[in-house]
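Hi team,

Filling in the usual template for the complex we talked about on Friday. All components are listed, including any nucleic acid strands or ligand strings, so the model treats them as one assembly.

SUBMITTER: L.P.
PURPOSE: interface mapping
COMPONENTS: two
RESIDUES: 926
SEQUENCES:
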Amino acid sequence: MPDVRIVNLTKKFGEITALENINLLVHDKEYFSLLGPSGCGKTTLLRLIAGLIEPDSGEIFIGGKRVDDVPPEDRDIGFVFQTFALFPHMNVWENVTYGPRVKNFDLKQAETIGDEVLELVKLHERLDAYPNELSGGMMQRIAVARALAAGAKTLLLDEPLGQLDAKVRNEIRYEIRKMAKDLNLTAIHVTHDQSEAMSISDRIAVMKKGKIVQVGTPQELYMSPSSLFVAHFIGESNFLESSVADARNGDLEIELRGGVKVRAVNGSVGKGERAVLVIRPEIFAMESGLHKGENALVGKVEKVTFEGTLVRYVIKLESQDSVVVVKPSLAEAWIDVGATVTLSFASEKAHVFAYPEAGLMEEISV
Amino acid sequence: MNKRLFRRKLTDSLNTLSSKKAVKYATYLAAIIVFFVLILFPPIIGIVIKWSSISQVLDQPLLMGRAFTAVTNSFAVALLVSALDVLAGIPMAWLITRGKSRWLSVLDTLADVPFIVPTAALGYSLLLFWNKPQGLSSLFGGSLISEGWLLIVLLHFAFSYPIVVRVLVGALLDYKVEYERASRTLGAPPLMAVRTVTFPIIKPSIIAAFILSFARSLSETGATFIVAGAFENGPVFIQNVKNEFSSVALATYEGATVFASLILIIVSLTIFALIRVFGSRLRLPFKRIWPSAERKLSYSKAASSRNSVTLIVFLAIVLLPSLFVALPAFQAVLNGTLSAAVSGSGVWSDYWQSLLLSYLLGGIVTLLSFIVGLPMAIVIARKKFGNLPSSLLDILVNIPLIVPSIALGVSLKFFWQSFTFMPEFLLLVFAHLTITYPYFVRSMSAAFERIGLDMEEAARTLGAKPFSVFTTIILPLAKYSILSGAIMVFTRSVSETGATVAVLNVGSNLQTAPVVIVNWVKQVVPATSLEIGLGCGFLILFSFIILLLLRLVTRGKGRY
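RESULT (copied from the run log):
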């Protein structure tokens, strides 16, 4: 069963540490994403799993078998490259059947597999075309078909949708997931696009500067980010600098700039310490005028942007913090620029983190 | 008027001029006319007007047979050498581009050494190393390799090696390793990945390397003459015939020369045409796959010892023999030959003059190549007169490259002879220009193609006039290509022997340095081995210094 297990993996390029002490378990038949900003080491990790580069220390297991010393051709993996890397001197058919042929399958078998995978990606009519005659979307499908044809049970995808335009990208990502699921593959998908990772993954590992910062299902990452970085990188968040006025049994009283006090329950920051209050834009309730109540924040509408499905408001609070609020554009009446509004939020939906030593901007920077 | 203002005005007026279509196209047209009138036609017409002299040898079966054998030898040697060079060059280029040691840049530079050593000096160096008692032979008693075809093969292998490695290194640097990695992840062992994916993709460069090596081997005269002994290939045959007949039976000499030159030219043009047409369709058994055998081979001892074998071949067959002449040169410095040399007594009086002539000629030819070659490179790269004329010119420009240089020189001589006012020195300049022109145009047009039109267009949209675009965008970006083109032209001119002896009158006092070296080695002018060694040593030393200066002058940050 091809689960992929990584133990204490470290990789350096000269002076630079690309990956530091990575531990990870990807389950059998799971669709797993490695998500992070460029330069975080996610592609390096994928290439280590594939055997395209060698680790400095640590162990890699595929299906329970240690593969550190196994060359890439014997790791039984399929790899989809960001640039597709379709062989330019071979046509579609030759590209797709390359794997079965070099793996010494007999000719009949190779042809059957070729037929099957081309059927799967619905490109059976372009057998004779050369890669330079195909569109980006077609090249992408052939690249996947070629990786699948070698019969591997582990599929590694390195930014497989990065070269496609937005519309095609959104279609193909679901197709790839469906194929992986239908064929019972273990898939590891590298991307820097959080919405792509969120929409197709069973689980996601968020990476930053050579380390894995959180692993979880898309919901877990979104609902309970373990760090400011994850809260910032997954979805959108408002960060309010504050301090903890009181802390009792997980019940926190947070004092914002300007003295306004609110209540939060998620977080473990000691009394008197500096903190950051994190609130997602869609969590706020917003009413025109001044209203009293728990967790009420008063401000003025500074900017209104229509984004199609949503309307985005920028509110300048009395504390001088600017926060973003989003509302469905058709379901609610819009509020005009300059209007005074009262925002409120549910205590259990906000998160409190200790103020980072390096500074807030440094902590959340990609 | 101060200097700055003057420059400003000059640039302005050149800019205005360059904006006029008529001026631009007049320049391009002039470059094309110069190419046809000075470079392409003379060697062709020269042979044609002497066509009738062939009758002189048709009734001399002995001479005809000699000529045939010589030409056959030429092609056999060229084929063997080019095949060996490509075989040896691929792992070397691989090591340079894929290796991980930081000594690789040193290796990269060392691989260029035989290219910078003028071939006559290289020939003597190899002769010393393989044949003379001072060299390797001393270990075995007698001479290890006698003068003849094997020594010619070793020589040609050595001087083509840098060219082949350079071309293949360029190809491997441009090649996307991703293809090979894809092949590995699909299940191909290393060797199979390289054979089924990498080689087919860089095939055009492998063919180009083969052609360059082949042409160079066909052409080379001076060094080949030094190591040939009684063996004759085309150029050596022409040289021998000149020595034997030119003063006693001029008609026989002309007949035999035209005959041999004609076969050399026709056969080589045919071969290159064939390679051009069928090369791209050539399918080595790339598609066949032998999974288990290739897997075994990939991880066998043969594969792991590849780098050591490559290095040994390079050191023992290319580098060491090429630089062996430094040994007698060094001895000469110690034993007093040096003072004789500096005082210019005996054989040395001609030597210094010839050295000066060689470098002067090299300088003039480099400058001329630049002037007439640059617009031509632009015409070809930017397709100024449409697709078809440009690709046609692209092919025509290469013709001097594949015509054996001695045949080219013979033909040029015949052509310009009819113009009695033609000074010998100018003839020499034309001969060298013809031979070096393709090198410069090729490297420049490749560079312009690489730069791409978008840079030019960006500069134009920002308000730059064509001349400014050229001086501020294209020249700076093409600086290194211009430098390497100039180095090629210069070294090629300084090395040139075949065409030089062919165009010179008997007893001419315009002997270039390689001609003098050849005469010394062949004892036409009696010289001791220390003297020859020192003569070669100076030639190499000065070439190195000039190249180093060139590099310093054009030194800049970063490569583009």
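MY TAKE: The first helix of chain A runs from residue 42 to 50. Chain A touches chain B through 29 residues (CB under 8 Å).

Thanks, L.
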